[in-house]
Amino acid sequence: MEIFETVAEIRNTVKKWKKAGLTAGLVPTMGYLHEGHTSLVKESVRDNDKTVVSVFVNPAQFGPGEDLASYPRDFGRDKAMLEAIGADAVFHPSEDEIYGGNPLTKVYVEDMSSVLCGKTRPVHFEGVATVVSKLFNIISPDKAYFGLKDYQQFRIISKMARDLNFDVEIIGMPIVRDKDGLALSSRNVYLKPEEREAALSLNKSLGIAEKMTESGERSAAKIINAVKSAIETYAAAKIDYVNIVDPENLKDIDTLTGPSALMLAVYVGNARLIDNRIIGS
Ligand code: AMP
User: Which residue's CA is the nearest one to ligand 1's atom 18?
Assistant: First the structure.
């Protein structure tokens, strides 16, 4: 496994692979890897001749006052994990390598970026779409892998790729959870042991909503109320939003008429946790 810090070097390497007729998969990450990330990498290794994993804490997707400075980092451990599962290359650029030269261009996917997490994090998805566009242009992957844990991100990137004709197949991978049901996240390190119960309210409330739809409930408002009550039983959990949306365009829906995305964001202590489930299918 090779480590690349410059755009020119990773680009040359991928060009050589392509000349030799090899396919390339890309897994964009911010590092501090866990089994959620490695599930994406393993799928890419299975699907492609070569796999590039980017490890870059992207400042553009953090707003003022967010956790950019404290975001957990351990590149030594990330490298060892990636080597063990067969990644071929790690792209680990500096901030200057990505954003040097005073860039004036940004990528913004309208409507989908200003709802749900975009309400509390107004610059977030523009930062994500811009850096992912750059990674697509730098690496030219045949396939790129994203976790459905960040469902809104997955839909925004899919739409961006279609709108801008990126020649890449966007693959969404299932949410990987801890044994107790908490969706794995690098930010789970912010949780204190006594906050764990409250954090589990997200997955539990998704289960409650799923049961309601299985017994025929179709009112989004009723399901949302039940989800909110389940989360609010934990004093440490503070709801940011609970919405049921169209799984493609992320617009709110009132009545479930098919698969619908139940989307949650909840603050527990210093952590802002997100989770989601497709219900009503
Ligand atoms: P991040 O490092 O948080 O930017 O995440 C990099 C990629 O890993 C994104 O596509 C995430 O959606 C994905 N990912 C993070 N956590 C999980 C998880 N628990 N299950 C599946 N994918 C995940």
Answer: 36
